[in-house]
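Ex. 9. Protein: precorrin-2 dehydrogenase.
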Amino acid sequence: MVWVPVMVDLDGKQAVVIGGGKVAARRFRLLQEAGAYVTVVSPHLNDELQAMAQQRAFIWKQKTFEPEDIRQADVVIAATNDPETNSRIVAHAPAKALVNDAGHAGNGNLAFPAFFQKGRLSISVSTAGASPKLASKIANELSEHYDTNYAQYVDFLYECRQLLKRPQFSPSERSEWLEKLLGEAYRKPEKQQETLSFFHSRIQGTAR
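Predicted structure tokens for precorrin-2 dehydrogenase:
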């Protein structure tokens, strides 16, 4: 199997997490941040999930798994401590669903790489299941390099790209600028402000 990295919009999707331990809690946090509607199926919850259940952060079905629990799910997370149960969950998942077996990613069609975000910048690292700890280590190292200054820089690049789409810039000029903006000098706030001012004046017809 060859995994293809993609970015997925889960806002408003129906997600079901089966399991009530640490892994289930991690998956829930990620799904919640993505804007999914989450149901957790488990007879018991750890302290973290129990606290969130009391806050009504998700729907809790206090029971063991049954196929009916995931019939309408867009995302299915098998995160129990029983490999046979996880395999059964995967087998009964809807054909349309994204499915993750937390104990054996190769059983499903969805894997969660180690990743970090700094504003619009998102970097993920995967070892295809060989060593999640190594993936986390590499992600942490990259996070130290791509700090909050990069988040501001990426916001700047986004704003520039939107301005360069205006008809005042030809396709060739747009391409030239997008390449030029990757230079070291444009990571400095004063250079960014100068560039944005130039783009705005060009659009308003006042640039010389």
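Check your answer against this statement. Residues 95 and 133 are 31 Å apart (CA to CA).
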